[in-house]
Amino acid sequence: MSAGAEAVVIGASAGAVDALSAVLPALPKGYPLPVMVVVHLPPDKKSVMAELFRGKCAVDVREADDKEPLTGGTVYFAPPDYHLLVEPDRRLSLSSEEQVHFSRPSVDVLFESAADAFGPGLVGVVLTGANADGARGLRAVLAAGGTGLVQTPTTAAAAAMPLAALAAHPAARALTLDQIAAHLRELGGTS
Amino acid sequence: MSDKTEDIELRLLLEAIHKRYHYDFRGYSVASLKRRLTQARERFGCDTFSQLQDRVLHDPAVLPALLAYLTVQVSELFRDPAYFRAIREQVVPHLKTYPSLKVWVAGCSAGEEVYSLAILFREEGLDERTMFYGTDINPEALKRAEAGVYDLDRLPLFTENHRKAGGKSSLSDYYTAAYGSAVFDKSLRRRTVFSDHSLASDAVFAEVQLVSCRNVLIYFDRDLQDRAVGLFKDSLVRKGFLGLGAKESLRFSAHADAFAPFAPDERVYQKQGDL
């Protein structure tokens, strides 16, 4: 199953920092896959996410730029007040169209566009959060032949987002944060 | 890259719209365009983009509704207040040296940015000598811009933005509230022209001191971005100013050398002298 993974998308909302702290620092230097992350944040804040995780991670961490080509070993955070999408040619692009689930960036928007670009090569990960964003996106990931991982709801700071994601598709797998981290390492061939 | 049936159909739909109606979306970024056209497809009850293509080719009434999906129309007055503060504090002192001014808001949608600048210019005593051009490809958006009517429930956000942008007056001085709407003062658009113009296919139409084009280029691919920035370059006077969206930059543009960062954090550039 691990063969052929090409990219990882992660969505998180309430409780995101703690959850991501258990996952992103586990990725080793030289990790081959690009990782795109949507965290729900207030629109008027300069995001500190990239800075925060840059200090904790062995991989590169940055805020996504429009039309930037994806490279492995890099974590791209969606900037506040913009949706983050993946183009068919595997460049990132930004959009300021309507909020989805009262959020911009939205997990669904990232996952759906990435599923289109990567098909079976995409791994979608839904972490803690207090709404339903990500459920539709995870369904798109699985429908395109990709892999869906969801934080076990009982271990999440806010269970609604994992619950909605699991309800959206029976093939999504519920895992603890440690298991998700181990799985992502394995997908990169660096278990 | 991708030759999925759906992507072939999407390209053919854009081709059909271009051939039949001369709206050119072929250089737009695919990911968000596809997302919005999927919503349109559902709204029109079509299973495929090919069915939507059939509808748009044979029923001219479909295109105006489709344009609402093809063009993103999300804005607010004084969106990104720090940008308007930079215009006010850093660009306006330069603009004050010109006896007459022209300002082009490219991709103005329903006019929020034009009204923001018109209010700012009035507060700075520049409005009497300034012509504003608000251009967009969407005739419905231009009509709304011309009307200057916004939902009243958006006004608290507009007011807060205006304050953060260094507003020197009360925003309520510029509109009348009635029946759930705020109607902006006609005097703000006395020297404003709202007009149809496409960054994908039209040419330069005026020599201007300031171009404001924010959160438009992100919807274009690299070639179309270059075309649009080329129009701005050709339109601007020497030492004129170009303002972009918070996440847009000229770093990778074919015209990067023609501009110098002026207020880099707020994405304001200045056109260079002789090249």
From TrEMBL, chain A:
Tell me what reaction this enzyme catalyses: [protein]-L-glutamate 5-O-methyl ester + H2O = L-glutamyl-[protein] + methanol + H(+)
Tell me the PROSITE patterns matching this sequence. CHEB
Single GO cellular component annotation?
Answer: cytoplasm
GO MF entry, a single one: protein-glutamate methylesterase activity
* Gene3D superfamilies reported for this sequence: Methylesterase CheB, C-terminal domain (3.40.50.180)
Q: Per the database record, which ranges form the CheB-type methylesterase domain?
A: 1-184
Q: Name one GO biological process term.
A: chemotaxis
The UniProt entry, under InterPro entries, shows:
CheB_C, Sig_transdc_resp-reg_Me-estase
The membrane-spanning stretches of this chain are none
Enzyme Commission code: 3.1.1.61
Q: Which UniProt keywords apply?
A: Chemotaxis, Hydrolase
Q: Is Hydrolase tagged as a keyword?
A: yes
The positions making up the signal sequence are none
* Residues at the catalytic site: S13, H40, D133
Which protein is depicted? protein-glutamate methylesterase
From TrEMBL, chain B:
Q: What is this protein called?
A: Chemotaxis protein CheR
Read off the InterPro entries from this record. Answer: Bact_Chemotaxis_MeTrfase, CheR_C, CheR_MeTrfase, CheR_N, SAM-dependent_MTases_sf
Segments traversing the membrane: none
SMART domains annotated for this entry?
MeTrc (SM00138)
What PROSITE patterns does the database record attribute to this sequence? CHER (PS50123)
What is a single molecular function from GO for this protein? S-adenosylmethionine-dependent methyltransferase activity
* Organism encoding this protein: Gemmata obscuriglobus
Which superkingdom heads the taxonomic lineage of this protein's source?
Bacteria
The CheR-type methyltransferase domain sits at 1-250
